[in-house]
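Pipeline run #58 for the internal structure catalog. This entry was flagged by the ingest filter as a single-chain record with no existing model, so it goes straight to prediction. Upstream metadata was stripped on purpose; only the residue string is passed forward. Reviewer on rotation: M.T. Logging verbosity set to normal.
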Amino acid sequence: MRLTDLPAQQRPREKLLTQGAGALSDAELLAIFFRTGIAGCNAIDLAQQILSQSQGLHTLLAAEHDHFCRFKGMGTAKYTQLQAAIELARRYLQTSLERALSLDSPQAVQDYLKLELKGLQREVFLVLFVDAQHRLISTETLFQGTIDAASVYPREVVKAALKHNAAAVIFAHNHPSGIAEPSQADEVITRKLIQALGLVDIRVLDHLVIGGCHAVSFAERGLL
């Protein structure tokens, strides 16, 4: 069935305009992005097939170029369009983050970091440097590790915080496994960093572990 054969209220574009984007399923949102289907398959059916083949939206959005183009009906043009859309969302969230930090909005910080660290195959350790009013000064990736570990040196973190004249920091690192649960090693290095930064009067506001679409906050867990 063609999308034009559906009742108006069931067509993705019309549904978005009348009910808002949040009312659409993943497949319906992708159908708007795809614009058209392929022979014998409308845009919604195509989106559902690709979501099934990729085991979900997160995996699809994180797919590398060659892997993405293996999906039926997808190619370089669609890949570049999708990457542009993701980058626009990342920049929007970065702008929102700068405002949210001063308003103490943990969810906005988590949303930004989940997008920033999505789909990475190597573990990275990122630091947000903020001033006394919790306004963002800079975001910097300080360490990169193997797929299952990252070496984090307190001296380098202190040096970077002093360079940025930060009053406080937020740490974040990803678990490429997709499991956001902090490890014992994560807790140990966090305590070491808190102690090192405390010597120069720099506060640690939070440490977020990102795994897939999930985030775990040390502050919310009472681990700081």
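catalog note: The CA atoms of residues 84 and 90 lie 10 Å apart.
catalog note: The beta strands are 124-130, 136-144, 168-174, 203-211, 214-217.
status: ready for reviewer M.T.
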